[in-house]
Amino acid sequence: MAEHTKSSITIEAAPAAVMGVIADFGRYPEWTGEVKEAEVLATDAEGRAEQVRLVLDAGAIKDDHTLAYTWISATEVRWSLVKSQMLRTLDGSYALAPRDGGTRTEVTYQLTVDVKIPMLGMIKRKAEKVIIDRALAGLKKRVESGSGEGGDAAGVPDSADAAADSAAKPDAPA
User: Is the pLDDT of residue 88 over 80?
Assistant: First the structure.
């Protein structure tokens, strides 16, 4: 069974702003080093991405694949692999937890990768760690710079922003 890699970072923004950037797949190539292309193939009734095609170049792992997204709540999203040229598994999640009254957000990113070609577990874990660390650093920089924040401009329907705001108050997938 594949093991997962997990890491967290704190971002100086409310969960809704962070999720707005996470949900804006078309802009991933602007802030993630590994994603070279991103295309939303299908959306749900609320306008959130359900299937996304991504072209990934993460050094040891290069692929053109499609992921299925499940929006667990306004503060959690999970994905799993639909099809891929070189990957057997690519499951992950972002979980957002409000901090300091909702002015900051702890983001936890979890990732499980399994490739079709033989690869030492140590190298695979290193690739997962690099993907996670770069994604979290890029997400933090993107959100804190104010790029891509808010409602429709970030590709997240206003209703999702409102739900994220209300969910952030008490406590609310990765």
Answer: yes
